[in-house]
Every structure is written in structure tokens, then in C-alpha cells.
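Q: How do we represent a protein-ligand complex in a form that can be generated cell by cell?
A: Start from the inputs.
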Amino acid sequence: MINERNEPISLQAALDSFDRLWSPRIVTQVNDYDVRIAKVGGEHIWHSHADTDEFFMVLEGELSIALRDAEGEDERVVVLPRGAVFVVPRGVEHKPFSPAGASLLMFEPTGTSTVGEQHDPVPGHIDATTGHRLG
Ligand code: NI
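Then emit the C-alpha cells for the protein with nickel (II) ion bound:
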């Protein structure tokens, strides 16, 4: 377990401990799931996770997520203001974006890649990772 000492964790202090965008930090774990936080801004890439749903909660700012089906059709955008939660179902292609920036909390199975298995080329501003430990 990441939070071995099982001490309370300040999400604000955790967010203040790093700056990199699109590079989630693992705050703690629940059973087989990571609780991750991330700072985001601009656009992520289209990708999907074949084996898991992905839970998002917006802590600060506003996040949008573009969604489309496996054929690349039926595209829509959900807009998540601060305090909103949303689940991207497994297999659904999605592209998070946030023109003005946001801070997020996510739940996903430990080992889940930020860019999924099916994805566009990964540009330099996006960290393809299964999450980093907090400082
Ligand atoms: Ni995703």
C-alpha cells in the first residue's frame, strides 16, 4: 500500500507538492484501486481503457471530456465543473481537456495507464504513466 503509515493526507498539500500537468500522483490505495490526483491544462489525447471504467472528480477548475464510441462516432462532450463526478465506461474513447486548467481526483485499478491501451501518439506534454508516488 502506498500510504503505509496510514496517516491523514491533505489533498491541498498533495496538490501543492508538484507542478507537472497530466502526470498523476497516487495519494493512497483502496483495495486494488489507486486514488490519484492530477493537475491538467490544455488537451490530453484520445485513448481508451479496455478493462476498466475511470472515475473523475473535479477538485478545482473545470474539466471537459470528449467521448466517442468504438467506431469513432457519436462524439459528445461532458463539462464537469468543480465538485462534479463522472465515470468514463471501459472501452469508450475519451479525450480530457481543460483550457483554463483543473485539478482532479481519480479512482482506477492500480497499474492503469494514463493513456490506456489504444491511443494516439503521445506528445511531450503528456506523461504516459501508471501514476507516481507523492514526493
Ligand atoms: Ni483515460
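The pocket of nickel (II) ion is lined by residues 47, 49, 54, 94, 116 (CB under 6 Å). The first helix runs from residue 11 to 16.
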